[in-house]
Amino acid sequence: MSHSYTVLLSLCFTFSVYAQNQPYQGKFEPIDNLITAPNVYRSASGAPGRAYWQQRADYKIKAKLDEKNNILSGDETITYYNNSPDDLSYLWIQLEQNVNKKGNEDFGFAFGNVRDSMNTRHMQFLTRAIDFPAGYTIKYVKDTNGNAIKSLVNNTMMKVILDEPIKTGESLTFSIGWSYHITDRSMFLLSREGYEYFPEDDNTVYLIAHWFPRMAVYSDTEGWQNKQFNRLGEFALEFGDYDVEITVPADHLVAATGALNNAAEVLTKTQRQRLEAARKSVDKTVMIVTPEEAQANEKSKSPNTKTWKFRAENVRDFAFASSRKFIWDAQAVPLETHTVLAMSFYPKEGLPVWAESSTLAVKNALEVYSEDVFEYPYPVCISVNTSNIGMEFPMISFNGGRPVDGKISERAKAGMISTIVHEVGHNWFPMIVSSDERQWMWMDEGLNTFIHQRTMEKRYPDYPHTTPKDIVPFMSGDKNIMRPIMTSSDNDLLSQFGANYYRKPTVGLQILRNSVIGKDLFDQAFKEYAKRWKYKHPNPGDLFRTLEDATAVDLDWFYRGWFFTTDNVDMELSNVKWFTVANEENVETNNKVTKANIKAENTGKNISNFADGPEMITMVSTPSQAYGQFLSRLDEPELRKQLYSKNIYEITIKNVGGLVMPVTIQWQYTDGTSEIDTLPAEIWRHNEYETTETFIKEKQVAKVVLDPNFEFADTDTTNNSFPKVEEASEFDQFKNKAKN
């Protein structure tokens, strides 16, 4: 064994021992220590494990709307199935209406603190000067024999204490009686439900959501998900079947999750005939209740009531809307295995744009999502018009956007349509691929926005849709206040909410699809994730592992940087050197090397442009010892011949922002043509801060540009070009404008 080989082994051993005692925290370290370890419940491939389980809750609910006093009351029976391996001595029930009690956070501070000349509504958000009798009145919690079950309420959670534990594999049926005052949505910031009052005709539109006491999730990774509801972090819910009876004024129309089971009792003969016609109408909407009929219906209030009965199977929630103001249209949307009835409910204040655009937007979303994720499984999909929000529930969503005096700008119309598409898309994420919104809001908002933006691009190409450049103002912001994506939504800054949970995850998935993995392979992997976790509860690790498992691409570097840090992409083209090889016919081919042959390595000129021409270099013969034990030799004269008259460019790229990414390089040639080379992110493995790469080009280069198509959300493009740009590019002007 040679001395040099012995030294090398010794150095390798020393480094290995050192490395074992020094945890590597580089950008290419596996993220195994950042996500839940695989086990029998969640496999290392990202799929549900062989012992995966989840709980189930079936509901039978009878509710009554008191329009005069704006009170909703109900009696519900829950059958809870304990499929976990644990015996449960108590249950947790979600009481989200309690969030509206005075003293809970209203986010009034989001618009600033107390100041002179502040608007009155803002002061209401801050002070709750006008109090409101918010929250549940729990009338009883009892078993099937009518015996009371002890319960304790802690703000938005109620603990039901059992005399005997529910053993694994068993179920428990119990009942809850309750009522609450429905909130006036204009009084509460970020109110996702409640009523909207229309003074002109003295009528109300009710949006009823998170309205009944609901089972909290009990899971293998979280135990009881009993985090308090603070408005921002949304919901974690179990799947089940729902039988719901809703009693409302007789002149109301009700739109709800599920299939209407008693149409003959609540709809007129004409309405039923129109509804049947809509089920066959695939190319246009059919008016079930016309604008004229709705306006006539507004003029008086029936003293009588009707009870609407709905059935929904395998859903995680139930919501409904009720009003005498509703116009109602519908259209059939044929999918691969069944036909869905797309419907819209809206007051006259939504005309004409809602009649023109709402159900069409539902149809477009159903078709694109069914193609890009999996087929929509439910019988109906409903869009209900309201003001100031977009909010999703199984089969139904509440969507803002209205004209003013019958007119709406293209920008406002685009926003309205985009909201409808987005909220319909939530049927997939999280209503079916049922992630924990309270813990990982980006898993539903980000994944949904990703497909939502593809829907807008496909069906509404003239309207804005998110691209990597849209996240640049956020990612180049103040790191002292910025949070990683992997942060609970309740702990993030409200000012960063949209960027961190919607746009940044969306752009991350766009980068993976378009620039890291490739569209076809990514699309298959994304569908695989959705299929694996359909009607189940995935965690971030399940998504991360599935995308790697289904693509054979190591993505830990991407997850670590994009999801777990606040680093940004800023690649600097710090140096370019231009060489040509001397055409010397008499280059010595023996092993004698003279000083005349030798040029110091990397002696290219540090130039500011290409005006001075290339550095001429001489290639010399390779000493025999450089080949080691190889007996064969390169055809060195031929190799040199292949390089004569070629242009050799050596470029140095610095990772200024800290976030590693692939590198795209555009070569703009002196003859007006151009081409792009792409380097994988792995070029940063050995040096995460700087890399030098060499390229051979037939043509002479006039300009070199990094990330020419803005694929990677580079936050500073002024350092992306050689020769250096003198003025801010159009993209940087956009970025600066967005910042301001």
Descriptive labels:
740 residues; alpha+beta; Neutral Protease, domain 2; Immunoglobulin-like; Zincin-like; 4 domains; seven-stranded mixed beta sheet; six-stranded mixed beta sheet; 15 helices; elongated; disordered N terminus
How does this model look, in words?
With 740 residues, this protein is of the alpha+beta class. The chain has four domains: 32-45 and 442-566, Neutral Protease, domain 2 (Orthogonal Bundle); 55-216, Immunoglobulin-like; 239-434, Zincin-like; 571-739, no CATH class. 24% of the residues lie in helices and 27% in strands. The chain has 15 helices and 31 strands. The protein has a seven-stranded mixed beta sheet with strand order 4-7-2-1-13-17-15. The protein has a six-stranded mixed beta sheet with strand order 16-19-20-21-23-22, sandwiched between helices. The relative contact order is 0.09.
What's this entry about, in short?
The protein has 740 residues and is α+β, with helices and mostly antiparallel strands. Helix content is 24%, strand content 27%.
List the helices and strands and how they pair.
Elements: H1 3-21, E1 56-66, E2 71-81, E3 88-94, H2 120-127, E4 136-143, E5 150-154, E6 157-166, E7 171-181, E8 194-198, E9 203-208, E10 214-215, E11 218-219, E12 223-224, E13 240-249, E14 253-256, E15 259-260, H3 263-266, H4 269-278, E16 286-289, H5 291-298, E17 305-315, E18 320-323, E19 327-334, E20 339-346, H6 353-372, E21 380-385, E22 390-393, E23 396-399, H7 410-425, H8 442-459, H9 472-475, H10 497-517, H11 519-532, H12 540-549, H13 556-564, E24 571-581, E25 615-617, H14 636-643, E26 647-655, E27 663-669, E28 674-679, E29 690-697, E30 701-706, E31 721-722, H15 730-739
Parallel strand pairs: 1-13, 20-21, 21-23, 24-25
Antiparallel strand pairs: 1-2, 2-7, 3-6, 3-10, 4-7, 5-6, 8-9, 9-18, 11-12, 13-17, 14-18, 15-17, 16-19, 19-20, 22-23, 24-26, 26-29, 27-28, 27-30, 30-31
